[in-house]
């Protein structure tokens, strides 16, 4: 067929020739024409109905006068119903409904009705009408044959959808399609009358347009999919309103992929050549393109957990990797267009990612093979397999399939085989096989065929089963195929894999046939048929466990009514011993039961999961505008015997905001697709000759959506007093990542509804929900998050149900959940007097200090200050735990000093806790500590708590914690230590302190080396940085200070920050001390290697040439170093007896702090740990040159003796070092014996002369300006780093208590 040279021409549209046969004059204007089987029905404006044969003959039948047709409310009332009774009544619009066998009519006075012939003959005496009494403003009508619905457009702008009651024949209102004031506040009642209503060819959506313009799309039972009266359709990008699109006529194209529209006339002012004139728009023909869910035509897809949308030439999947980022062009069951003229039809607009569970939001777009489409356009059915890896599509003839893994299409090799089969009942995947029902044109035979995916696509490899009647629907369940046929019968087949020789095929055998003709009036009315394991029994009550698995029931969607037929188990139960399952006698089915009305889609799964039985054994229904329903099984707890009076299943309705296309059973999610729009009218100028239609319409894309439904179900169960079931269900889902969100949503929705209700609620649900949430460990967070997202007015109602916030706060503290406690604090601050919130804040602050939660501590300091400053005013301001600190409540503990931290303002990420602030402090010797008098008490109060904490840390010898605490909270350690020198800052027990420091800083206790001991301090080559610096401090008094700064810079840059290179100031210091100095200074850095950013541009500015020189020198030294055996041993000993680099730097920093504060006993302890005699020397120099408290000297002396005794007995490794410093210790005893009683000791400070202060300030700025790193990089280097470094900078500048400096903290 394809081989013929004229094949292409044969595929073209045939030439049509129209000629006039006959003219009939009906004497009055014709209002409506309808084709009824072999006849033509014509309604004229004189109130007559003419039945005309297609030949143009009236066959002698008289025209029927409407006035003679009896109308009543239903067909049961007396046959002589009232007549319309007006001479001038005529039909304005009518449509024939084949499945209802009658006409839906709209009269010129706005009344609507349904006329049906009582017998088969069509005469006036045999016609009878029914009409609803409440519709008086009808304008037009459209009929849906599949669902037996009549949609009447009304002058009010709503569409009333009626159905016929099977028993009485009355017209029943099914639902209304109307815009709500909530969604369309400015337009909902200003649309004008409904102009046109059109159902799509597959009867799954209806489109509605109004007199004032606008187009909307609705699902069968009233879920709104699209409306062009809001959003980007109605407004330009600058916010001005567009004229709505006016439509005078519209019609659907093949398979519902296109909507053809004639746009109406409308004048519009546009400016041309600067003279204003009104241009009348010509009517234009527009084409809207849609894609639809495969469920609309192939309902067997409802047991899949994927969303599959089909367009006329492509498919959209929500699974598979996003290999193409093409844009889908429309939405949900049917959706919105991109205009055919638009050049933007395939924009590559990127979307952001959705939740991790759903992966990305891109669709996987599969372009259907053009070879197949050429002769088989458009696509009629599509199906995807369970794993989402293979797709099959059906066009006009044959079918084709595609693998997402290999990205290849498989088509029929023999074109004749393709062109002689028409798929009739849809298709489905079973493992690796494609099952489909088709009509074989060449044999004139209905067939059921099974093709293997992996073999070539050819009838030779297919398993064919002949069928007697046309198949309308097909579905696969486990290893069974269920088929619904045109004679209203259902047939069940078993399907199994067979390997005969090299070929693998599937065998199909008939299991059972069930006739449904007594229940179904017309086979076309069946929307879907599925086999499920859902039954009214739970398997617990069944006599045999395997029956629970085989409890198949048939679900039939009959025009929106869901009918269930279960197997009849009332007969004798015979346990089959037969080995072949296909031979077993299948149980008959019970009579059908109606489960639900207005059902559009049904989802079930045949998978089983012991943990989530509720969700997996449920039946999910989509009911259009009414939302969703779930038929949920109820299980007795712990397999107790169920109560006989309790139902085993319950139908729960719930609303969701999206149109559901798939249900993820275990994940408690519904997936959907929604039409999204993108405006591009800004590309066009306003003064173009006319506003193009393309510009009027935004570009449409389809977006994947998902929604959690669990909270709705839990709430419905609680309303019905099924708390135990709700608990079982919630516990089975508590591992889901969004479970906390579910609880929060439920609490929030109930709270909003009940707290804002105008009337009193007789049986409030909030206490029940609160009690329910307490069953979960997340209770405290859920309540506080809900409160924080709710307005203050509702808090009293909420806490009346869940408990006093003070008690909840205390529970958080007991559970050590400090972040949640902090959130409760904000609630307490709003609900209680300041004294109460201060008391609770103090509790929390102390606990946070104890646990080292520094972020929280900083927030608490700010919070306590905010309470203090706001105490006079009411209500207090609410600082939220997430906010950045306000400028009023900032860190006033950085008072009176110049601090310039290493971050520059641009580098600070906005979401990090940060503060940019310039403090100008009063200058003068008094150096006032606070800018506001009212703050004094508050600051004092906070300081007292900080002091108390510091005292505890010192008493417990927790120096590491003390360092972190001071660095993180900007605690003025030096000044506090000066005050506490004789009290808390004394070392009571040197041995305990030594042991504790070894443990805290992971510093190994020294061991005695095997070889002869040579001390590091005698061997210049191994001297460390600290030795050199500290030694040189004793040399000249002024360099003392500079050396301190140098030291703390080195240490800080390598420890609290742990990955910042040497700063400018260090290098200066280093290079100003001669060559031997440089050698020692740079060697530790070269060990760090990767951690230092040595060559970055900011490090080397002024002294770059000198630095280069230093480095080459170091390299040469290293390369030419030749070590002897003993030296190598010594190095290894050195390394073994040292702790981590970071600990070393932290210890030096503490040494520096204690030295400045004059706590010499602590300096001695740290000197001992570092085993540096130079440190001990330096302390003794200080003791000799300055006047030191005799008590402290005595303490040091006794302490050192204790250490000596301990070293002799327990730790001989210390002995060599103690021997080295023996001479110094003797000096010390001499001094103590003299018993010098000096006056109060002063720490080393600079005499306050301007010459000395200003260069120092310069240096500190220089040092911090360089070597900076973006905060983000730093953040990675451990919890401590960033904030600690803040204060280390602050600490070293402690002595300069006067002068006004800028302070910029970040």
Keywords for this entry:
1306 residues, alpha+beta, five-stranded mixed beta sheet, 51 strands, elongated, disordered C terminus
Q: How would the blueprint of this fold be written?
A:
Elements: H1 7-11, E1 30-36, E2 39-44, E3 48-53, E4 64-65, E5 71-72, E6 91-97, E7 102-107, E8 112-117, E9 127-130, E10 138-144, E11 149-154, E12 159-164, E13 171-177, E14 194-199, E15 205-210, E16 215-219, E17 224-227, H2 231-234, E18 247-252, E19 258-263, E20 267-272, E21 275-280, E22 285-289, E23 292-293, E24 308-310, E25 314-317, E26 364-367, H3 370-376, E27 381-384, E28 390-394, E29 400-403, E30 408-410, H4 415-419, E31 421-430, E32 433-440, E33 445-452, E34 463-467, E35 471-477, E36 480-485, E37 489-500, E38 503-515, E39 526-532, H5 545-550, E40 553-558, E41 561-566, E42 593-596, E43 601-603, H6 613-616, E44 619-622, E45 628-633, E46 649-654, E47 660-664, E48 669-678, H7 693-696, E49 699-708, H8 710-719, H9 723-733, H10 739-755, H11 766-773, H12 779-788, H13 795-802, H14 805-814, H15 818-831, H16 834-851, H17 854-870, E50 899-900, H18 935-955, H19 959-969, H20 973-979, H21 990-1000, H22 1025-1033, H23 1037-1054, H24 1064-1071, H25 1074-1088, H26 1104-1119, H27 1125-1136, H28 1141-1157, H29 1160-1170, H30 1173-1185, ...
Parallel strand pairs: 5-9, 50-51
Antiparallel strand pairs: 1-2, 2-3, 3-4, 6-7, 7-8, 8-9, 10-11, 11-12, 12-13, 14-15, 15-16, 16-17, 18-19, 19-22, 20-21, 23-24, 24-25, 25-26, 27-28, 28-29, 29-30, 31-32, 32-33, 33-34, 35-36, 36-37, 37-38, 39-40, 40-41, 41-42, 43-44, 44-45, 45-46, 47-48, 48-49
Helix pairs in contact: 8-9, 8-10, 10-11, 10-12, 12-15, 14-15, 15-16, 16-17, 17-18, 19-36, 20-28, 21-29, 22-23, 22-30, 23-24, 23-28, 23-36, 25-26, 28-29, 29-30, 30-33, 31-33
């Amino acid at each position: 067929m394809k081989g013929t040279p004229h094949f292409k021409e044969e595929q073209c549209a045939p030439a049509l020739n129209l000629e006039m046969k006959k003219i009939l004059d009906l004497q009055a204007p014709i209002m409506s024409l309808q084709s009824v089987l072999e006849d033509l029905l014509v309604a004229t404006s004189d109130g007559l109905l003419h039945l005309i044969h297609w030949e143009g003959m009236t066959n002698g039948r008289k025209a029927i006068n409407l006035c003679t047709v009896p109308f009543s409310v239903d067909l049961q009332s007396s046959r002589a119903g009232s007549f319309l009774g007006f001479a001038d009544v005529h039909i304005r619009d009518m449509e024939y409904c084949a499945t209802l066998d009658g006409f839906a009519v709209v009269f010129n006075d706005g009344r609507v009705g349904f006329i049906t012939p009582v017998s088969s003959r069509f005469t006036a005496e045999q016609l009878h009408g029914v009409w609803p009494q409440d519709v008086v403003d009808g304008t037009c009508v459209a009929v849906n044959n599949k669902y037996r619905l009549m949609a009447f457009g009304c002058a009010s702008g709503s569409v009333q959808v009626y159905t016929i009651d099977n028993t009485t024949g009355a017209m029943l209102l099914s639902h209304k399609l109307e815009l709500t004031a909530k969604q369309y506040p400015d337009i909902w009642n200003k649309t004008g009358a409904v102009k046109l209503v059109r159902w799509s060819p597959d009867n799954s959506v209806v489109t509605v347009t109004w007199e004032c313009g606008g187009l909307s799309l609705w699902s069968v039972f009233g879920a709104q999919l699209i409306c062009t009266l809001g959003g980007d359709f109605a407004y330009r990008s600058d916010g001005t309103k567009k004229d709505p699109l006016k439509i005078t006529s519209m019609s659907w194209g093949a398979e519902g992929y296109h909507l053809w529209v004639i746009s109406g006339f409308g004048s519009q002012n546009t400016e041309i050549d600067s003279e204003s004139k009104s241009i009348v728009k010509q009517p234009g023909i527009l084409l809207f393109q849609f894609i639809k869910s495969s469920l609309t035509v192939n309902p067997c897809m409802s047991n899949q957990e994927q969303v599959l949308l089909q367009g006329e030439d492509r498919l959209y999947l929500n699974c598979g990797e996003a290999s193409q980022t093409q844009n889908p062009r429309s939405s949900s069951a049917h959706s919105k267009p991109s205009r055919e003229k638009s050049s933007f039809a395939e924009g590559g607009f990127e979307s952001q990612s959705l939740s991790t569970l759903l992966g990305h939001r891109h669709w996987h777009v599969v372009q259907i093979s053009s070879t197949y489409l050429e002769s088989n356009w458009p696509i009629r059915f599509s199906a995807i397999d369970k794993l989402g890896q293979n797709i099959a599509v059906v066009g006009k003839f044959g079918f084709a399939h595609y693998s997402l893994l290999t990205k290849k299409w498989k088509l029929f090799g023999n074109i004749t085989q393709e062109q002689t089969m028409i798929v009739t009942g849809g298709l489905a995947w079973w493992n690796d096989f494609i099952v489909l029902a088709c009509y074989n044109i060449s044999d004139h035979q209905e067939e059921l065929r099974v093709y293997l995916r992996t073999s070539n696509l050819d009838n030779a490899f297919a398993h064919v089963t002949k069928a007697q009647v046309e198949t309308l629907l097909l579905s696969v369940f486990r290893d069974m195929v269920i088929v619904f046929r045109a004679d209203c019968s259902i047939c069940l087949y078993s399907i199994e894999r067979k390997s005969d020789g090299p070929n693998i095929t599937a065998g199909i055998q008939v299991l059972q046939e069930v006739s449904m003709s007594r229940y179904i009036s017309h086979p076309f009315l069946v929307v879907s048929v599925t086999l499920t394991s859902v039954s009214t029994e739970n398997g617990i009550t069944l006599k045999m466990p395997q029956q629970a698995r085989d409890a198949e029931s048939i679900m039939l969607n009959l025009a929106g009514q869901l009918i269930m037929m279960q197997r009849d188990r009332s007969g004798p139960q015979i346990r089959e011993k037969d080995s072949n399952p296909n031979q077993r006698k299948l149980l008959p089915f019970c009579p059908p039961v109606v489960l639900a009305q207005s059902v559009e889609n049904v989802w079930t799964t045949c998978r089983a999961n012991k943990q989530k039985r509720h969700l997996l054994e449920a039946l999910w229904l989509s009911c259009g505008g009414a939302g969703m329903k779930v038929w949920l099984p109820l299980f007795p707890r712990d397999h107790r015997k169920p109560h006989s009076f309790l139902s085993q299943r319950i139908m729960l309705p719930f609303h969701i905001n999206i149109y559901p296309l798939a249900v993820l059973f275990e994940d408690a999610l519904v997936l959907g697709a929604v039409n999204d729009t993108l405006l591009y009218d800004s590309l066009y100028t306003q003064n173009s000759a006319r506003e193009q239609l393309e510009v009027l319409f935004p570009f449409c894309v389809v977006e994947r959506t998902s929604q959690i439904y669990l909270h709705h179900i839990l709430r419905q169960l609680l309303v019905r007093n099924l708390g135990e079931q709700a608990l079982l269900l919630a516990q089975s889902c508590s591992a889901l990542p969004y479970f906390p969100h579910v609880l929060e949503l439920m609490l929030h929705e109930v709270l909003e509804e009940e707290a804002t209700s105008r009337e009193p609620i007789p049986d409030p649900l909030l206490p029940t929900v609160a009690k329910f949430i307490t069953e979960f460990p997340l209770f405290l967070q859920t309540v506080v998050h809900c409160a924080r997202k709710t307005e203050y007015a509702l808090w009293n109602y909420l806490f009346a149900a869940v408990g006093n916030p003070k008690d909840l706060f205390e529970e958080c503290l007991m559970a050590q959940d400090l972040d949640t406690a902090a959130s409760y604090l904000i609630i307490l601050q709003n609900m209680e007097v300041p004294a109460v919130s201060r008391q609770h804040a103090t509790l929390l602050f102390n606990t946070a200090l104890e646990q080292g939660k520094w972020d929280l501590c900083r927030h608490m300091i700010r919070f306590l200050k905010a309470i203090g400053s706001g105490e006079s005013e009411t209500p207090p301001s609410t600082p939220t735990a997430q906010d950045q600190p306000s400028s009023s409540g900032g860190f006033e503990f950085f008072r009176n000093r110049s601090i310039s931290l290493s971050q520059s303002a641009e580098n600070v990420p906005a979401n990090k806790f940060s503060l940019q602030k310039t403090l100008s402090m009063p200058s003068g010797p008094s150096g006032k500590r606070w800018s506001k008098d009212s703050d004094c008490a508050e600051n004092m109060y906070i300081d007292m708590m900080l002091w108390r904490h510091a005292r505890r840390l010192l008493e417990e010898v927790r120096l590491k914690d003390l360092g972190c605490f001071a660095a993180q909270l900007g605690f003025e350690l030096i000044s506090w230590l000066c005050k506490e020198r004789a009290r808390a800052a004394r070392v009571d027990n040197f041995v305990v302190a030594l042991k504790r420091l070894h443990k805290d800083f992971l510093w190994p206790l020294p061991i005695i080396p095997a070889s002869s001991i040579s001390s590091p301090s005698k061997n210049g080559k191994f001297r460390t940085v600290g030795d050199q610096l500290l030694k040189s401090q004793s040399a000249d008094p002024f360099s003392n200070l500079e050396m301190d700064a140098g030291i703390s810079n080195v240490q800080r840059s390598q420890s609290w920050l742990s990955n910042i290179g040497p700063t400018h100031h260090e290098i200066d210091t280093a290079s100003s001390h001669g060559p031997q100095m440089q050698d020692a200074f740079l060697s530790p850095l070269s060990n760090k290697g990767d951690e230092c950013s040595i060559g970055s541009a900011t490090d080397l500015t002024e002294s770059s040439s000198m630095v280069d020189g230093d480095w080459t020198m170091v390299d040469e030294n290293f390369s030419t170093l030749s070590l002897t055996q003993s030296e190598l041993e010594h190095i290894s000993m050195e390394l073994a007896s040292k702790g981590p680099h970071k600990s070393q730097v932290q210890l030096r920093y503490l040494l520096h702090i204690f030295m400045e504060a004059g706590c010499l006993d602590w300096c001695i302890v740290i000197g001992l740990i570092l085993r540096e005699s130079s440190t001990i020397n330096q302390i003794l120099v200080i003791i000799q040159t300055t006047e030191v408290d005799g008590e402290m000297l005595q303490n040091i002396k006794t302490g050192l003796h204790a250490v000596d005794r301990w070293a002799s007995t327990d730790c001989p490794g210390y002995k060599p070092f103690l021997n080295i410093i023996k001479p110094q210790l003797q000096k010390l005893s001499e001094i103590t014996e003299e018993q010098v009683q000096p006056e109060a000791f002063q720490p080393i400070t600079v005499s306050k002369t301007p010459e000395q202060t200003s260069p120092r300030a310069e240096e500190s700025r220089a040092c911090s300006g360089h070597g900076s790193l973006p905060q983000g990089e730093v953040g990675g280097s451990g919890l401590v780093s960033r904030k600690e470094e803040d204060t280390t900078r602050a600490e070293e500048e402690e002595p300069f208590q006067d002068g006004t400096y800028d302070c910029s903290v970040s």
